[in-house]
Each structure stands twice: as C-alpha cells, then as structure tokens.
Design a protein that fits this description.
The protein is α/β, with parallel strands linked by helices. It is built from 19 helices and 14 strands. The chain has 2 domains: 221 residues, 3-Deoxy-D-manno-octulosonic-acid transferase, N-terminal domain (Rossmann fold, 3-Layer(aba) Sandwich); 185 residues, 3-Layer(aba) Sandwich (Rossmann fold), CATH 3.40.50.2000. Helix 6 crosses helix 7, helix 7 packs parallel to helix 9 and helix 12 crosses helix 17. The longest helix has 26 residues. It starts with a helix and ends with a helix. The relative contact order is 0.10.
Length: 421
C-alpha cells in the first residue's frame, strides 16, 4: 500500500519534474537532452549477447567514487560490459571524462513502474549496483521480481538523511529490505541503515579512498603552477552557492599578501555567476579557460573547467573544501588529503562526517567556524611551511590507511551473486 501511494504521488509530480528540467536547462542546456531516457525509452542496445553490469551513480561525486569499482569489475569480469546510469548531466559528463567509450551511459528513468520495467527489459543487466544513498522503491521491487541481484554499495546515511527516511518508514523499510546486500561506508552508516530496515549491512569502507588521479593530472598540475608563477596558491575547491561571496568578503577584509586565490565552483553552470561576484567584490579575475598565464595583478583565478580537480589540488599550497562553510554537508575532503595538500574545512561536514572526524584527529585537516576564520587560518598556514608539510604528510597517511574498500565491495558482490544462484 505504501508503494502504491508513493507511485500515485510520483505520478502527480511528473509535470513538475518536466518543468524542473526546463528550468534547469535555462542555465545548463544539457538538461534538454535525452528526455526519452528519463521516461524509460532508450536507443537500440548494441552487443546484446554480452552480460551487462549496471552501476547507478546519480551525479559527479558518486560517479567519481565508482571509478575504482568500475576498474575492478572490468578486471574481475572481463567478459561483461558496464552500464553507468545517472540523474544529472554533470554526472554523465564526469562518466564520459573518466571512462570514455569503455562504458555505456544513460539516465536512470523516473521511478514509475512502467519506466523502470522498460529500463530493465531494454538493458537486461545481470547485476545492479546503486551508489551511496539512492533508494527507489519501484526499482527495487522490479529487480526483486526479476531475481536480479541489486546491491547498495558505498552506502552512507547521515543522521539528517535518516530522519527524512524515518518519515516514510514503511516505504523505506520495504526498499531496504528488497536489496540483495548493503555495503556501508562506516559503522554509523551501517547502524542507521539497520535501524531503517536493511538486513545485515557489511562495513566495506569508502571507495573514495581508492580513487587514483588520472595520469595526465600530474602534468596538468605542473602546467598550472607554471601559469601561476611563484605566488603561493590558496585553493577553494568545489564551492557552493553563497560560499564564494563570504570567502571574497573575508579575503578583502583579511588580505593574504602575495597569494593567489583560486576558486573552483562545484557546478559548471555557476562559473559566470562566480566570475561576476569576484568582479563585484572589486577583485581582478582571470579564468582558467582563457589558456594564458596568470598575470601578477590578478587576485582570483577562476577554475572554470570540469574533471581537473586533482590538477588544482596538485598546484595548491593549501586547500579549502567547499560545501562545508554553509549547510551543504561538505564535498570530498579525501582527495586533497590523498594528494598531500593541507586541508581546511568549515563547520558543515555531515556528508563526510566520519572522514572529517578522522582527518581532523590525524592532523590532516583544520576546521574553522566561518569565512573570516578561514582566511585568518589560511594566512597563518601559508606563512608556516613546516606546519603545511606536516599536515600534508598526515593527509597522505590518513588516506593510505583507509584504502581497500574496492576489494571488500567486490567480495560482497561475489557473495551476493553466489547466494542468488
């Protein structure tokens, strides 16, 4: 009954979903593309004789986290193809940048029973893996009817998200109970998932610790450093709406002499908006996309590119991880730690709560309360090379000590496959 009510509500919201796509397309035209896939209509599938492993990675973060898993699955199951599904254009673009033509990509349709059925009938995957916290009740039910193993992997669940799921407890319990297996990032995630109805989640760790930078990123980092010149670089990475304005105001109030501020917004549709905010703050901005060296009089270098975050980290002396200054829960702080870059984070870290706690305890990161404190701490660390070096080494050790989630996830997958035979 709860799934029926959910489906009726979903049907009522479909016109709003279409309007939402049109609204998003005003700033990001890619939202106008592949609408047929969102309703379960797909072009002809090539190579139909080859078994297909399907991985759902909703957007950029989940797609990047899937990178080591995709590589491991292709080694372990070389006769299988890989289908990668997304919900956002940026997720799809990230998948194309990471994997090229080696994987098939599509949008996962809206969770109506008939769209989901068309998706499964079209691709006929032999295994489904859903990354992190995507729970679609009709999709889970359809996979269960088809005896298709469906696993929730790299699962994370903050207390905030758990509270939302508790509001629809019967629906959540049915969806979690219909999964073949669950691999959780950490003990707290597993406990919250169990309380909501998951059956015996296994703690496999966080796949993001196993991500390795693409080989070309080190060379690009060197190119960035040549463009910047001798000035120290303070990188504000993956910043979210509202954060840039606070950072820029604090940067003007507490100037860091002879230092280049580099801002890389999380979402590409905001590049022009952030460039305007820098100009409005009375600071001189250059864009990475202009392909020229950073001039001595430039205050802010805007990272208006996708898929180059490792290169920005490689060129930085100190990095702030965005999404943590305001209530967005933080973006991925594991990547700069692994790169040996000292890390600053704000007060909001619920998306990476466990990783943030451990990075702070290891001395790899420092937490600040607000934008003013962020710039003051940045100025302090940029004047102390020894402290930065110690934080960088602590970050590398912290990241190295948490690797292995990919292999543990593969073991969970293989156990689930054996159990369904």
């Amino acid at each position: 009954m709860s799934r029926l009510v959910y489906t009726l509500v979903l049907l009522a919201l479909l016109p709003w979903a279409v309007l939402h796509l049109l609204w998003r397309a005003r700033r990001q035209p890619e939202y106008r593309q592949h609408w047929n896939e969102r309703f379960g209509r797909f072009p002809a599938r090539p190579d139909t004789a080859r078994p297909l492993i399907w991985i759902h990675a909703v957007s950029v973060g989940e797609t990047r986290a899937a990178q080591p898993l995709v590589a491991a699955l292709r080694r372990r199951f070389p006769d299988h193809g890989v289908l990668l599904t997304h919900m956002t254009p940026t997720g799809r673009q990230t998948g194309a940048a990471l994997f090229g033509d080696s994987v098939r990509q599509a949008y996962l349709p809206y969770d109506t029973p008939w769209a989901v059925a068309r998706f499964l009938d079209h691709f006929r995957p032999c295994l489904g893996l859903v990354m992190e916290t995507e729970l679609w009740p009709n999709l889970v039910a359809a996979c269960r009817r088809r005896h298709l193993p469906l696993l929730l992997v790299n699962a994370r669940l903050s207390e905030r998200s758990a509270a939302r799921y508790r509001r629809v407890a019967p629906l959540t319990r049915g969806a979690l109970g219909g999964l073949t297996a669950v691999g959780a990032q950490g003990r707290r995630d597993a406990e919250r998932l169990t309380a909501l109805g998951a059956s015996a989640p296994v703690v496999t760790g966080n796949l993001k610790f196993d991500i390795t930078p693409p080989p070309d990123q080190a060379a690009l980092a060197e190119e960035f450093r040549r463009r910047v010149g001798p000035r120290p670089v303070f990188l504000c990475a993956s910043t979210r709406e509202g954060e840039e304005a606070e950072i820029l105001a604090a940067w003007k109030t507490h100037p860091v002499t002879d230092t280049l501020l580099v801002i890389v917004p999380r979402h590409p549709q905001r590049f022009d908006t952030v460039a305007g905010a820098v100009a409005a703050a009375g600071l001189r901005v250059q864009r990475r996309s202009d392909g020229t060296s950073v001039e001595p009089g430039t205050d802010v270098w805007l990272g208006d590119s996708m898929g180059e975050l490792f290169a920005y980290y490689g060129a930085a002396d100190l990095a702030f991880v965005g999404g943590s200054l305001l209530q967005f829960g933080s973006q991925n702080l594991i990547e700069p730690c692994a790169a040996g870059v000292p890390v600053l984070i704000g007060p909001s870290t619920y998306n990476f709560a466990e990783a943030a706690r451990e990075a702070l305890a290891a001395g790899a990161a420092v937490q600040v309360a607000n934008a003013a404190a962020l710039i003051v701490k940045a100025r302090e660390l940029l004047a102390d090379p020894a402290a930065r070096a110690a934080m960088g080494e602590a970050g590398r050790a912290f990241a190295a000590g948490h690797r292995g989630a990919t292999e543990r996830t593969l073991q969970l997958i293989e156990a689930a496959i054996r159990a369904t035979r």
